[in-house]
Amino acid sequence: MQLNAILVTQNVFNGIMVGGLYALIAVGYTMVYGILRLINFAHGDIMMMGIYFAFYGVILMRMPTILGIVFAILATALLGFVVDRVAYKPLRNAPRISALITAIGMSFFLESFAVVVFGANYKSFLQVLGKNKAFVFKTFKLGGVIIPQITFVVIGITIVALLILFYIVYRTKIGMAMRAISADIPTTSLMGINVDLVIGFTFALGSAFAAIAGIMWAMRYPNFYPYTGFMPGLKAFIAAVFGGIGSLQGAVLGGFLLGIIEVMLITFFPSLMQYRDAFAFLILIIILLIKPSGLLGKKSIEKV
Amino acid sequence: MKKVVVALLVLIISLLTFGVIKIGVVLPMTGGISAFGELVWEGVQLAHEEMPKVLGEDVTLVLVDNRSEKIEAANAVSRAIDKEGVVAIIGQVASSHSLAGGQIAETKGVPMLSPSSTNPLVTQGKKFVSRVCFIDPFQGGALAVFASDLLGVKKVAVFVDIEQDYSVGLTNFFIDRFKKSGGQVKKIYYKTGDQEFSAQITQALAFGADAILVTGYYPEIALVAQQAKMLGFTGYFLAGDGADAPELVQIGGEAVEGLFFTTHFHPDANVTERSKRFVNEFVRKYKKKPSALAALGYDAYMILMEAISRVGKADPKLIAEAVRSIKNFEGATGIITIDENGNALKSVIVDVVKNGEFAFQTVIQPDQILGK
Predict the structure, then answer these.
(1) Of A18, A234, B101, B107, which is most buried with the most CB atoms under 10 A?
(2) What InterPro entries is this protein classified in (chain B) (predicted)?
């Protein structure tokens, strides 16, 4: 097949679309890591729970779409807070590997919980959108290149989300506490700061972003089931490492780049299209070999 | 005293079981694809209600659950034969389950009749395993005939799920037949669980496809249709019986309107007199329209009864032979002929999605597929 300018441009935009979603998920992912140095492998599953909250808020509790989404964000934030209290808080002083294993356990738990409570079958997010579903399918045409409206929505929400985050982290008291904790937990607690509350708040905030990302994800891909969070969670992890885990700007950059690279590899090597997920892991390996701290990551000195 | 009680019990049991023909029904009643098992069971029960006796003896159905698992699918067949003493088995739904269970039925010499396993391997090299549904080469051929002869399509982009034998097989059989009609094909790969297809769809558009065929299952079919429409694709959408689930419309919404798919049965198709009767009876009993799987379950039972009555006694080996000698049997899903390999030759139904419902489009006859 011949490569032409339109095909390539179209796929760049397709990549931006996917990358925007990765970026949005990676922001929440990297935030928890930045504060706690914890790879929260359950992040993708918290995102999945966010989708279910929106679904049941609208379907069972008959909320209007917007209210259902707000409800989902709040419920997911609460879930994040509870997850931290139940699973991570008891391990605050344990070796980091224990917390990592607990995070993987939490991921399995949330998936199995969803299978038991919500059922293993696919559900459709279009039911949540109701009359608003046409909004998801609107597209713009720019000289032969077609861009779905939702691309702009995803990018817009990512920007707004980042602005809110930066405001919280750099302009508020709790943000200052978060930064202090990321530097040194024991000393921070000596300063009279309720460390557990601040960490709980961080989880709630990260989970709220997971819910927003999940809802965006479900608008683009309306079929969801209890394992929906698995792949996006993994991709967001790769994006976060790519951009420099712990760095918010890095997560966004990593997300967009990962999306674009994935799509462009298929564009230039169509015969490899079934290995698309493998490319993502290849990128992870390469970045870990060449620049382990990621593109925008700071080189941190390990305390011995 | 004890001996008398035992003797009495034995007498009662033998009286109760005297003149009873036991038929095993091995289906997934729990687990991942339990929804499919329930649908088949509805059809089998209806058929049993309509014909509760054969050779003047009562037929007893023994339902055994395979828990949607491959290993349990084999165990369930053993249990039905050894513990329950069934003379024949109706089952199973998924091809992989029928493959596992069929091996046991073959060794023990008891006929097994699958209502819905379409993979060619299920009956290959076996004497006792047969089926009442068409096989994938047939379905792929029907799709090709429909695309080239009825829609006039010249270039098809086929989305192949590399993780499903069903999809890979169906694709190859489609391509064989479609190329004979002078069509061009481009294969596009994905795997189960993929959600983002825009890069692949862009390739299909660059190929100039006037139809997109997705040979996998409904979650991906729905997403491909959605994303292809968003990227400006205006041609036809085609799929196999993997699309035949109400979730297709729930997930796909308006994007799957106009999608054509091949399947086994549609309540409005009225392919035979018996289909009409079956639909009426089904609606009366269950207060809803029958699914393709229910119709296949019904046909499996009826063909088994026909085979037993031809043999004249409940002998498993003779029943297995009789099943394979069935010609032009009028079933609910069509006129069924079972060939010497145990595969059903029958018409293929094409449905179209219209106003969020599956509407009957047309029937493709076996000679249309095999001809040319």
Answers:
(1) B101
(2) BCAA_transport, Leu-bd, Leu_Ile_Val-bd, Peripla_BP_I
